[in-house]
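Appendix B: complex inputs.
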Amino acid sequence: MSRGTAAARPAVPARIAGVERSLPVWALAALILVLLVALPLGWLGWVSVSSERGPTLAHYAAALSDPRLRSALLNTLVLAFWAGAGAVALGAPLAWLTARTDLPGRRLVRSLVLASFVTPPFLGAFAWVMLAGPNAGLLNRAWRALTGLDAPLVDIFTMPGLIFVVAIYTFPYVYIMIANSLELIPSDVEEAAAILGAGRLRIAVTVTLPLVAPALVSGFILAVLQALALFGSPAILALPAGFHTVTTQIWALFQYPPRVETAAAVSIPLLLATALLLQLQKRLLGRRGYAAVGGRTGQRRAIPLGRWRWPALAGVLAVMACSILLPYGVLAKAAFTRAWAQPLTRDNLTLANWTFTFFQYSATRDAVLNTLELAVATATAGAGLAALLAYIASRRVIVGHQLLAFLALAPVVIPGVVLAVGLFVAYTRPPFVLYGTLWILFVAYLTKEMPVGYSQSEATFRGIHPELEEAGRILGAGRLRVLREITAPLARAGIIATWCFVFIGVIRELSASIILFTPATRVMSVVIFDLKEEGHFGAIAVLGLFMLAMTFAVVVVVQGVLGRDVLGVRG
Amino acid sequence: MRQRWLAVLGATVSLLGPLGLPASALDARLEAARKEGKVVWYTSLALPSAEKVARLFEAAYPGIKVEVHRTGSQRILQRVMQELAANIKNVDVIHTSDAGHFVLLKEKKLLAAYTPAGVEKFPPGFKDRDGHWYGLRATVSVIAYNTRAVSAAEAPRTWKDLLDPRWKGKVVTAHPGYSGVIATHVLALVNLHGWEYFRQLAQNRLMLVQSAVDPSGVVASGERPVAANGGDYTFYKTKKRGNPLEIVYPKEGVPLVVSPAAIAAFAPHPSAARLFTDFTFGREVQQVLADSEGLYTGHPDVRYPADKPRLSDLKLLTVDPEELEKRSEEIKKRFVELFGA
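Resulting structure:
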């Protein structure tokens, strides 16, 4: 259909008049994208093969022959695969239960999934140290008191512990994919199976599951990608247990004397792995078409769970307890007590952590201001740029718009740490010395958030019919004027939502910041990490809760603007 | 109440000033420092202690702010070198617990020679012979245990007691790749017992934390009942707050960690940096470090709390800063090989 309208385009007066003023704007947007993505990656690749005596593969040889780097690589693969599997095991049933059945409290469950979606994973990992440290962890203490056993129930400082903590914060990715896919699939096929006498479980496994399989695999890959790129959780849980992942290893290579070339050489395999996974996901998604043959016309009827209703709800709430209720609870306890491991007695209660964090610890103020400044700047620039790019791509304004879309989505494959290594190399030398300023963090955040911003904006413009714009142009308005007076007002809600998404992404960012910050440009996540290294649990809990409060305030704004929840069906 | 106390103390200190300088020179320097407006302090002193010193200075010299950047000694060196490589001049006063850093920094001509007033009376281990750095404070690395989990009778008494398999999974160590206290500790014990000691210690599967401040929190919470190292001042303060914790000064000797401070050669606020350095080496601040922070200092007039052992009563294991600098790579590398991360 849009192809038909494209054919009518030569009649547009602006082009005949040869005053296509918008071209420079597009060119600029394209240039920015190339700079954001190509420059750091180019430097990364170059540094990984450069030496004083010309090109070399020595850094790769050094990286791959070092048994510790190899084991870090292996650990990352193990973590990512099992975290992905865990995310599917949690996310898929949850999505089915909330989208397809008469599970009680579906709205509440959705809100809790949303909460775990926006919770910074490193805060979750930190909370789980207090919950499931083998000796002092509150859950293990309760377990010992109940059973009288000496062995802990769970030891969070292990690979399975790390996998668990990563999975409970990545399952929302699977949830979103599957819930949205289920929304698009009419339930008549399932009903037909029911009429033919199939049981609920059999329908779920033989009918529904194959229909959502592409979404499921795709969600799995998204979760794996998240797990591969994480820095905070492994730094908090794996390092005390004496093992590294690739991300913590890359970070450690920056310690004095720095081995930036090796860090670059280790980054490349990680980058290739993510690129490969994303390619795979794309092929799977490309085939999804057949799943939703019926479009959205079919009726959906909630499947009655019968006597499984309450047990199912209990299971769902157990998952949410792990990812939200228990961690938030223990953070609150740590924030208001002298000693988090001691009981909540009157003696133990205090506001000292709050006064210390906000009035005595001088880094707090600067870090909060830096974070806010960066979040507002990145969200504004990011939402603007994303809207522009999505507009170009969805309206096929220029030749090569596919390339723009590709570039805008490309940073998805770049883990934060890898991006940071590239930016560090690119911007610590002339002509662009951005290291030591907030600019380098701004560039990192903008690049990292571009895919999220772009997909959000793209969905927005897809929802706005081009006919209105064409009417405007036929009446003689230039493209920019149409954009300003017709498209922009229609796209407003979507753009505000994009702004908020980017904002949330920025305030929680740790993996790139940890390499790019300087003492003068610290942000909240870095300060929290600093405090973690020194073991100031109370202050971390205070800053963590503060960060969560900021996040949820923004989420409330998005919900208000969009009139639906953030996890909702796209398109 | 506390604020007022700070202000009074600060005012006293500023009135006394560094002795020996004529009033006009003092005024001129103060004027210059005020114009600079702030001093940037990269410090490995435990965060609450560092913030306290900063507030004392700000109370004594209104109008001059102290920017505290507290992190581990090794991270501070990393920061300084990384910033320098990018031609960023941010730090005024560098203070870490790895004396080797100051050998390296001096060799690279990154330190300004400056002798704070009064330090000539400090003992030899606290002074660089060329006057580039001076020991601001000292601590000893010790063993500590949680008295609820471990009785005094069964507690480890020597470094080698920690090798007993019954401590498997029960011990925490801080990291020489983060902390200067621990880098010094590792070298001192390697010189005493050899790397073999650490190879055997690693068999007990220690929990690895970063800062030498952290083991005190880990032991107090009971996450691990025993700490294999850590600055005694952090344990002392944790115990004073009512935590079930006891400190052991092993008989083989305790590593003495002298933490130097120096002004960067490229300091963007040189006058404020000198003012701040004089202030922190003055008797009042040195006494505060001893009183409320439980630290040792080089100042001969400082009095220590009665419940802390005197340095002269302890068998001290000292390390040579030159050796610490030369073997810094080896220390970090072997430690990571043995302990895994």
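Confidence is low (pLDDT under 50) at residues 1-19, 288-297 of chain A.
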